[in-house]
Amino acid sequence: MKRFLVVLFFATDVLANQAVVTTTDYNSGSLSRLDLQTHVATRDHLTIHSDAVVRVYRDEVYVINRRGQDNVIVLHSGDLKTPVTQYSTGNGSNPSDMAFVSEGKAYISRYGRTQLLIVNPVTGDSLGAVDLAGFADADGLPEMFQLALYGNRLFVACQRLDRDNDWVPTDASAIAVVDVATDQVVDVDENAAGVQGIAMAGKNPVGAAQRGNKWILSHVNTFADLTDGGIEVIDLANLRSEGIALGEMALGGNLSSLAMVSNSEGYVVVTDANFANMVKRFDLATRSVSPRLEGLSGGFVPGLGAFAGRLYVLDQGSFTDPASAGVKIFDVHTDQLVAGPISTGLPPSDIAFVGSAADFDGDCVVDFGDFMAFVGAFGKTASDGDFDAMFDLNGNGAVDFPDFLIFVSAFNE
User: Fold this and answer.
1) What percentage of residues in the chain have a pLDDT greater than 90?
2) Comparing C-alpha atoms, which of 216, 281, 310 is closest to residue 17?
3) How many whole angstroms separate alpha carbon 52 and alpha carbon 56?
4) Of 171, 170, 280, which is closest to residue 218 (Cα–Cα)?
5) Fewer CB within 10 A of the terminal residue: the chain, N end or C end?
6) Distance between terminal CA atoms of the chain?
7) How far is residue 108's CA from residue 10's CA, in Å, rounded to a whole number?
8) Cα–Cα distance measured from residue 126 to residue 111, given in angstroms and rounded to the nearest whole number
9) Packing angle between helix 401-411 and helix 368-377, nearest 10 degrees?
10) Coil, helix or strand at residue 404
């Protein structure tokens, strides 16, 4: 089969070389573009909400304007100044995340609603909704937040916080599971009364990253206690939690955003007792934590991004050194700062990559070297000890022919 892939493969290189960054000073917001090869940011393409995140699917960029604006702006990746369209998610709905099944179907989690929205992501046309009221706590809302797709199922992390009691976590956080073919909630435990989701070991998930059939979530639990959260691994294939792999005690403070650079290794933002932010590398396989990255301001770090062998840290600078704000780029092989701070105008707040996930070797080009790496991984499944989810481009738990077709489409763009 591998020989067949080599014979079949004819294409030209494609560059994978840009990221989209939302920026904010918490009074206003903007959208900037970062060239991943030159490390130059083109600032202020578009004015957006001061509380916004960005997602990318194929050639489209989606700016999710959260609480107070409650809408999605759609842009083509080649033109960040001119919206293709803009559509509401409902007044007061506070949209939080988007997950894309196809160019014609996506889900939007809404923090201020019990219903998960289904839309045509490009046009905003409604395709229905999924009722998650069964996952709400006593305040009537489930606080649906992060989303993940695996196979034919959507996974919705519900924080389940008590809005009537200073937003403290309730008895448990949970993951609702939705069949994307029928848009029906899946009952994970048919032996228990009602429709059950995946019970989380931790509470109040605030950061998430997916590697194939594993969903890695960072939990803060309560902000007052720097030891009650941790990093949890969810097995999406078997609909169960693998428990807390690393606790806040080992990591040194409250957790927030995280990014994965391999099946077991990643980085997480940690806040200490003095509210200083740091970024630490962790390994879930060995349950080890490395010293903090050098070169950060100690100020607020709202987000991390990992792409093509680089970690992108969104450093908003400190009160004593505001000039230290910007995107800082680290080599994930050495943990050394290689570029930055790169000014994005207003301080950076979220990042998404337009380049291809098929750039396996991290040289910002999808070329024959990436193809040979893919051939070496072809045929492996999540049950194999040397399986690397990086090559599982469609997230079905196997490196197979559908992944090859995705790779070819990236190579030919």
Assistant:
1) 73
2) 310
3) 14
4) 280
5) N
6) 24
7) 37
8) 18
9) 170
10) helix
3-state secondary structure (DSSP) of residue 207: strand
In tens, the pLDDT along 216-261 reads: 999 999 999 999 999 999 999 999 999 999 999 999 999 999 999 9
Strand intervals (E) in 25-104: 29-35, 41-48, 52-57, 60-65, 71-76, 85-88, 95-102
Closest CA to 132 of 162, 155, 148: 155
What's the structural domain count of the chain?
A: 1
Domain assignment of residue 376, yes or no? yes
Q: In the beta sheet, which residues pair with residue 79?
A: 76
**For residue 310, what is the DSSP state?**
E
Q: CB burial class (10 A; 0-12, 13-18, 19+) of residue 255?
A: buried
Digit-coded pLDDT (tens) for 300-333: 999 999 987 899 999 999 888 888 999 999 999 9
> Please, which residues have CB within 8 angstroms of residue 266's CB and are 6 or more apart in sequence?
209, 216, 258, 259, 260, 281, 282, 284, 306
Pairing of strands 174-179, 168-169: unpaired
Residue 177: pLDDT over 90: yes
d(CA 199, CA 180): 20
**Domain assignment of residue 396, yes or no:** yes
394 has pLDDT over 80: no
Cβ atoms 76, 354 nearer than 8 A? no
pLDDT of 409 reads 65
Question: What's the rounded Cα separation, in Å, for the pair 298 and 336?
Answer: 17
Q: What is the tens place of the pLDDT at every residue in 130-150?
A: 999 999 999 999 999 999 999
Token pair belonging to 60: 């489209």
Report yes or no on 389 lying in a domain: yes
CA separation for the pair 128, 202 (Å, rounded): 31
Q: Can you give the C-alpha Rg of the chain in angstroms?
A: 20
We report the CATH number of the domain holding residue 388 as 1.10.1330.10
Q: Let me know if residue 97 belongs to a domain.
A: no
| Proportion of the chain in helix, strand, coil states, percent, rounded to 5 | 10, 45, 45
Q: What are phi and psi of 5, to 5 degrees?
A: -65, -40
Helix (H/G/I), strand (E/B), else coil: 249: helix
